[in-house]
Write a structure and sequence with these properties.
Distance between the termini: 42 Å
Strand order of the largest sheet: 3-2-1-4-5-6-11
CATH class of the domain at 2-174 and 214-236: Alpha Beta
Helix content: 25-40%
Bound molecules: uridine-5'-diphosphate
Number of helices: 9
Shape: globular
Order of helices and strands: EHEEEHHEHEEHEEEHEEHEHH
Length: about 325
């Protein structure tokens, strides 16, 4: 197949691109490089089945016939979507619509990267797909949460009114090589801090929870969903739940770092708990994750060491992601 991947230079987009190429497909990657990085695609420079178009999907586009569209373009980390708030709203509305129009024009299948943020600060635990969520529509996270929720409505509308073959994946916290070193996410912050021998910045009391999925597990679930006939949202995430404090201690152990843990203010509207119910993915796709957090962290260390040695910008984003910035 000739497949379009929007957000191909991002963390998930680039891993998805690798997976599709490995399966023998051709990939047209589209990215405006606002948060993605060409470094994530550098290894594909001489790959004839890969083409990169530098384009903002908020403007209409068409790069020729495609049989499938994966829509992964969006700022995704809290630091980035706070910085690019209006752009995040725009890409989740006009951008998603333009990508849907490409799929409609070519009769292509469509998978949209949605998020556990659709559940907001969830009052139901663990979160199953039939939970409608607890989202603050005007809080600092709303630019991301509501853009993704609008995208889900739009994608569902194209399925309902245009009979487009659509899929919605709700992605939970994912980590691995190519996670933006400076994008403020908890795993990248902790690993980089530990490798530098700097304090690990735990926000709040560290009792809030997240469930971390290694990137290859996540991509595998996504590709399976794309091939399925399921049109309603499906959670793809690792259901093993960690407090953020436990996560910091695990990073200390895996890196062998003697960095201390320090506590900083909790960002506004930071969800208190998050854990996917993956029964639907298990039943429909025969999918479940196989890589535990310690193992996944070990698989990621070389990448983070290399990015530190490469002398990229060294601002510690932990300092920009605290309550005041949100
Ligand atoms: N967090 C933290 N220290 C950091 C970065 C994040 O304690 O240096 C916390 C953050 O407050 C949240 C969790 O880790 O409770 C996950 O944050 P992340 O930004 O990775 O993603 P989120 O799941 O909030 O979108």
């Amino acid at each position: 197949m000739r497949i379009l991947v929007t957000g191909a230079a991002g963390f998930l987009g680039s891993h998805l691109t690798d997976r599709l190429l490995a399966e023998g497909h051709s990939v047209v990657g589209v990215d405006n490089l606002s948060t993605g990085s060409l470094a994530n695609l550098a290894h594909l420079q001489n790959e004839p089945r890969f083409q990169l178009e530098e384009h903002d999907i908020c403007a209409p586009f068409d790069f020729g016939r495609v049989e499938y569209v994966y829509n992964f373009a969006s700022p995704a980390s809290p630091v980035n979507y706070h910085r690019l708030g209006l752009e995040t709203l725009e890409v989740g509305s006009s951008g998603t619509r333009n990508a849907l129009e490409v799929a409609r024009r070519h009769g292509a299948g469509f998978l949209h990267a949605s998020t556990s943020e659709c559940y907001g600060d969830p009052l139901v635990h663990p979160q199953s797909e039939d939970y409608w969520g607890n989202v603050n529509p005007v809080g600092p996270r709303s630019v991301y949460d509501e853009a993704k929720r609008f995208s889900e409505a739009l994608v569902t509308g194209y399925h309902r009114y245009h009979a487009l073959n659509t899929h919605l994946v709700r992605i939970f916290n994912t980590y691995g090589p190519r996670l933006g070193r400076d994008d403020g996410r908890v795993i990248s912050n902790f690993v980089v801090q530990a490798l530098r021998g700097e304090p690990l910045t735990v926000y709040g009391d560290g009792q809030q929870t997240r469930s971390f999925c290694y990137v290859s597990d996540e991509i595998d679930g996504i590709v399976r969903l794309a091939a399925s006939s399921e049109h309603t949202p499906v959670n793809i995430g690792n259901p093993v739940e960690w407090t953020i404090l436990e996560c910091a201690e695990t990073v200390q152990r895996v890196t062998g770092s003697s960095s201390p843990i320090v506590f900083e203010p909790l960002p506004v509207d930071d969800p208190m708990q998050r854990k996917p119910d993956i029964s639907k993915a298990r039943e429909l796709l025969g999918w479940e994750p196989g890589i535990a957090l310690e193992q996944g962290l070990l698989l990621s260390l070389d990448y983070f060491r290399a990015t530190l040695l490469a002398g990229q910008p060294t601002t510690l984003v932990g300092q920009t992601a605290t309550a005041g910035a949100s």
